[in-house]
Structures are given as C-alpha cells and as structure tokens.
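Support request, please re-run this one:
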Amino acid sequence: MRLAQSLGSLRVISEIAVGLQKQQRRFDGNQAPEAGSAIPSLHGSGCGSGVNPRNIQQYINLSCFTAPAVANVLGNSGRNTLIGPGVAELDTSMLKTIHLPLSKESDLQFRTEAFNVLNRANFNPPSGAATQIYNQSLAAIPNAGAIVETSTTSRQIQFSLKLLW
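Re-run finished. Output below.
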C-alpha cells in the first residue's frame, strides 16, 4: 500500500505600524507631560503599499513617508498601514507499508516527510526599533525597516522506519 499526503499554506504574517522614536520626557512637578507622539505622513504617487517587497535591507519604503514638521503632530499615516511579508509553505509526506512474513500481522512501514519543500525564505516583518523610521530630531533613520529574521526553517527532510506487529 502506498500513501502520499501534501499540505500547503499561504498566509499574511502581520500588519506593520510605523512611527518615530519616543523622546524621554522629564517632569518637574510644575510641568505637565507632553501629550501625543508624532506619526509620519504617507505620501507620494507610486508608493502603493509603502513597502519594498523584494528588499529585506529596507522593507519599509522610507521615500513614501515624511516626518511631521514639529514633534507631537500627527501625520496621515494610520495604524498598521503596511502589510508584512507573507508565508508560503508546502509540506509533504509519503509512506509505504511492506508486509513481513514473520507473522500474519507484521508490517514494516517506511515513511518520508519533507517540510518547506520549495525551500522558500519566509521572512518576519520588521518589528520593534526597525519600525521607527525617524529619530527624536525627526531625521530619517537609514537602516529602518530592515528584516532581520525568518519565520520558518529551511527545507527539512526526515526518514523513518516503523515495525508493526
């Protein structure tokens, strides 16, 4: 008896919110804390989604954003406006059962399983400090929007033998 199974999946990892590095605020009893935080403006024709899907060094397209003219001013970029890289994965397994003449119910089963068969690099979206695209003085951070890790492993293949009696 032969049996083969495959399981594939496609999904979008997550949404990305871009912003500015938060300033350290000091309080001196008489002053109220500054309210709000700056959000960049999304602009420019041809920016489309605001990401460079084939550029992991600068996944967030910085040329699509403008820093606010002054701190604590909200731009037009909404929350979670960017879409992270997707995941595509194909896993498969095959097995063959061979009857052994040791007894009526003894079988030997050979099984092969492969994970991420297409060996596609599936990246995690930029997160944390990588989504802060302007520093406290509203200057662009050159390495902002970088992808630094993958979300799945590389191709893995495993073989096994199982004795049934």
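The mean pLDDT is 77. The first strand starts at residue 2 and ends at 12.
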